[in-house]
Amino acid sequence: MSVLLIAEHNNKEVKPFTLNAITAASQIDQDLHVLLIGSKADDVAKSLSEVPLVKKVLHIDHEIYENYIAENYTAAILKHADKYSHIICSANTFGKNLMPRVAALLDISQVSDIIKVISPDTFLRPIYAGNAFATVKSNDEKKCVTIRPTSFEAAETTGGSAEIEKIDAADQSENTKFINREEIKSDRPELGTARIVISGGRGLQSGENFKLITDVADKLNAAIGASRAAVDAGYITNEHQVGQTGKVVVPDLYIAVGISGAIQHLAGMKESKVIVAINKDGEAPIFSVADYGLEADLFEALPQFLEELNKLNTIQK
Amino acid sequence: MKILVAVKRVIDYNVQIRVKEDGSGVVTDNVKMSTNPPDDNAIEEAVKIKEAGKATEIIAVTVGEEKAQETVRKALAVGADRGIHVKVDGTIEPLAVSKILKKIVEKENPDLVFMGKQAIDDDCNQTGQMLAAHLNWPQATFASKIEVNDKSLQVTREVDEGLETIEVNTPAIITCDLRLNEPRYASLPNIMKAKKKPIEQINASDLGVDTNPRIEHIKIEEPPKRKAGIKVASVEELVQKLKNEAKVI
Description:
Chain A has 317 residues and is an alpha/beta fold. Chain A has helices spanning 16-28, 42-49, 70-78, 93-105, 210-220, 228-232, 263-266, 298-311, and strands at 2-6, 32-38, 56-61, 84-90, 111-114, 116-119, 122-127, 132-138, 143-147, 163-167, 176-183, 196-200, 223-226, 253-257, 274-279, 292-295. Helices cover 24% and strands 28% of the residues of chain A. In chain A, the strands form three sheets. A seven-stranded parallel sheet of chain A has the order 5-9-4-1-2-3-10, sandwiched between helices. Chain A has a five-stranded parallel sheet with strand order 13-12-14-15-16. In chain A, strands 6-7-8 form a three-stranded antiparallel sheet. Chain B is built from six helices and 13 strands.
């Protein structure tokens, strides 16, 4: 049987994590179909059909899918679920909201947030904020699986020519209405996929002081992250939060500034390739995961850091 | 309006997790246990709604072993009116918990069900959505702001892109984010009073729900350890290391 991947998109473009989930899904079974549920999303269907790992695109196009509502998506998925061995999507807020609703109606015990495909029924997943790894085997006949996107490479996006099949919409839920979405537009790289991330914590002491972080981010073309403490204190908005209940990032370089390193924060960044910690408390737990630790006052260190970066002839982008 | 709040007993968020050497799980003996943190937010929100005169009764429910009752008792001390403890031993998956909660909802007929968005032990993030599916109720997950109207709620949800607002008709399931509110501490007099509040005990087996796990835990192991790093003496040295040794800038 084939596997069905649920695409995340904004009716114009495929969201990047869908490409990571495609890679994971293709490791479960090469006969990979993608379900696109949207409104006027022909461009998205076309770009999905060009992903070489995708064998078929199922496209449901109806105005009721202009905004993503889990109830409406679930009804659409259930109409087609019986033909597939696995239903898969990414374990971000999109997939976390959606997949359990689908799984419950199929009477499947979902496997959440996998970081490795061991076999079509066995997966590796982190538990306890990544402080333990569990190898789990699903004994349900059909499986619902969500993928930790940062644990899989993004699939190639060109060269394929999968068939696009148009299929019918399902009923709309009367009880949930989309009101609005406050999306913060930024020219910076996305936090989840950036090569470099610089994050600030409570040590920044105010929202204004985050400018010290943004100045360095501009220089390095980095995304900006934050600890939960910094978000709770209102220094920066929620979509920047890195950690167990925020985003998981795996950049080439992660710079933690004024972050003590609670286990809940480490859960979101400790797989980064190179970690730098700047903190004035030499005993802070963040130093236990840092490749390079600098015990210093961030208000002196960050301007100096920017100055040193300015002295370099070239900086990798 | 009646609100049902589901709470879970987990290893306290401050405890350093230790994996058992035989690969069968993590060490729970003599380890501090607490209410799952976002479940505290769920209770707090229900209590606030009741204090605002918009709810008449709060029922706290938990599913788990004998000691799971402590989390219900804590919810009673914070402001829940009565408790339900569905007793079940051993591992229980979100799918089974959601089926048990469905039975409780059918018995109690609440207008709203609140719970945390995710438990910090198995990190599954499933139960609320699954319960909503079983009941065919709307779901508002990852809530960071809730506005209660007559027959609906406006819920602001924390999503990857920022904030999203949806309106759900009641009855509805809400899963709560840590930023929804600041959970209060129970006062000593309220802890004393909570001891007199009723907790109904039900055996899961009497509810006719199959609680057998569908997922086999083959092995629990420690994650790979990071190689120990070094401390640098100056910003200058840091930049040189990043440029010439790690080659990341």
